[in-house]
Specification:
This protein is an alpha/beta fold. The protein has two domains: 196 residues, FAD/NAD(P)-binding domain, CATH 3.50.50; 212 residues, FAD/NAD(P)-binding domain (3-Layer(bba) Sandwich), CATH 3.50.50. 24% of the residues lie in helices and 21% in strands. Strands 1, 2, 5, 6, 7, 8 and 23 form a seven-stranded mixed beta sheet that branches. The chain has a five-stranded parallel beta sheet with strand order 10-21-11-12-17. A three-stranded antiparallel beta sheet has the order 18-19-20, with no helix packed on it. The two termini are 34 Å apart. 43% of the residues are buried.
Length: 424
């Protein structure tokens, strides 16, 4: 049993960002993780994955990318190595192999308010920071698991095409993970069908600059949840249809539904249900494509307006916009076996999951009630959630802002609001 000021749960980029700031402020703390530094990146990502954000956006408190290719995209292995060097640089007090079994109120004095029970011991602390990230339990549409003769693999278990049994593949979900996995399988010669739900389309580059540069300078990444007309919908925004693959000719290629169609991927609507070897799809492909394209063009309009207002027309390229997606006639259902489909890869996102958090701060959907990382329970904080406060909260680059707000509040009680909004 150990008593200290703060327990940080999770040794990913968000937890290490908090640890760096606590170290600077002289707060004794420990960082607990079920595995090693960046464990989820090590064990729940596919082999070829690169970060979606360019390397210049890889920034944490007291550290930023300083390599030779700021416009490139770090591979998962390179990013893990960066996290390891970052942890060593300030002596992060990481305890590896410490699976958290319970975080609960101890009923003791404030200095020992919380008890954190793990497979490697118990810690008492005044503060706890939950930094386990936005990826909880993979969401699997009802009926998919357990289909006779059909293997179902969630995106966090997918590694490479060689892992997939022979035959065709149905990929469910068309956000960043879904389109990247569908693309890789198609390149490997697989017959791929992609079930397309809501998605966010963006070009990888526009007018000579990476789209994240435009998202940054237009202020879109810095928009806060308080500015959003519908915070619940904002936190459910789909990830961008992008790939971070480095390319000899340019920073990275585009990857959208049109590119996938050109490679032979068959598009269908959102998965509606599965049963008796059949999969049914909604008649919404055209609507989903149209909504995504309209959103993309509104953003590109804003970029063009910024270029004009700033007098940069002569300074940046004039780039044609992405071509419209051709929406094909799609089947309402497929007999999976008749189509030769033996595997379904599910890339439909994750649901919050904190079964070990035994403090009454969770909402019915499992998310943690908070405002700027401050929960209703005194001394309990969260960092690294999707759109926690800013739109970029769920990105590596954005976690530093939330970490700063949380540590400021933890130190002084003045860095953010003391209690969470009931609707947060």
């Amino acid at each position: 049993m150990t008593t200290l000021d703060t327990v940080v749960v999770g040794a990913g980029h968000a937890g290490l960002a908090v640890s760096r700031l606590l170290t600077e402020s002289g707060h004794d703390h420990v960082v607990l993780d079920r595995g090693r530094v960046g464990e989820r990146w090590r064990t729940e990502r596919w082999d070829s994955l690169h970060l979606l954000t360019p390397s210049w956006m890889t920034r944490l408190p007291g550290w930023s990318y300083d390599g030779p290719d700021p416009d490139g995209f770090l591979s998962v292995r390179e990013f893990i190595a960066s996290l390891e060097r970052y942890a060593v640089s300030f002596g992060a007090p990481v305890v590896s192999g410490a699976s958290v079994l319970a975080v609960e109120e101890s009923g003791l004095e404030p200095a020992r308010r919380y008890r954190t029970v793990t497979t490697r011991g118990t810690w008492y602390s005044r503060h706890v920071v939950v930094a386990t990230g936005p990826h909880g339990t993979p969401y699997v549409p009802k009926g998919l698991a357990g289909q006779d003769g059909i293997e179902t693999i969630t995106s966090n278990r997918y590694r490479n095409p060689e892992q997939i049994a022979s035959g065709g593949v149905l990929v469910v979900g068309a956000s960043s993970s879904g389109v990247q996995i569908a693309d890789e399988l198609s390149r490997a010669g697989r017959d791929v069908t992609l079930a397309v739900g809501r998605h966010t389309r963006m070009p990888r580059r526009y007018r000579g600059m990476d789209v994240f540069w435009w998202l940054d300078v237009t202020g879109r990444l810095a928009r806060t949840i308080d500015e959003m007309p519908d915070p619940v919908a904002a936190r459910r925004e789909t990830s961008l249809q992008l790939v971070g693959r480095n390319d000899p000719l340019r920073a990275a290629p585009d990857l959208d539904l049109g590119v996938l169609q050109d490679r032979g991927v068959r598009l269908v609507g959102r998965l509606a249900g599965v049963g008796g070897r059949r999969a049914w799809f909604r008649d919404d492909l055209a609507g989903n494509v149209g909504t995504a394209d309209a959103t993309m063009h509104r953003f590109l309009d804003r970029v063009d307006q910024l270029v004009e207002r700033s007098g940069l027309i002569e300074e940046v390229w004039s780039t044609p916009r992405p071509r419209a997606i051709r929406v094909p006639e799609v089947p309402a259902q497929l007999d999976l076996r008749a189509q030769g489909i033996g595997t379904v890869v599910v890339a439909t996102g994750f649901r919050p999951d904190h079964p070990w958090l035994r403090v009454p701060v969770t909402l019915p959907d499992g998310s943690i009630r908070q405002h700027r990382g401050v929960t209703p329970a005194p001394g309990l904080y969260v960092v690294g959630q999707r759109f926690q406060h800013r739109r970029d909260s769920g990105f590596i680059d954005g976690a530093r802002h939330d970490a700063r707000a949380v540590v400021d509040h933890l130190r002084t009680g003045m860095g953010a609001r003391r209690t969470a909004s009931p609707a947060a």
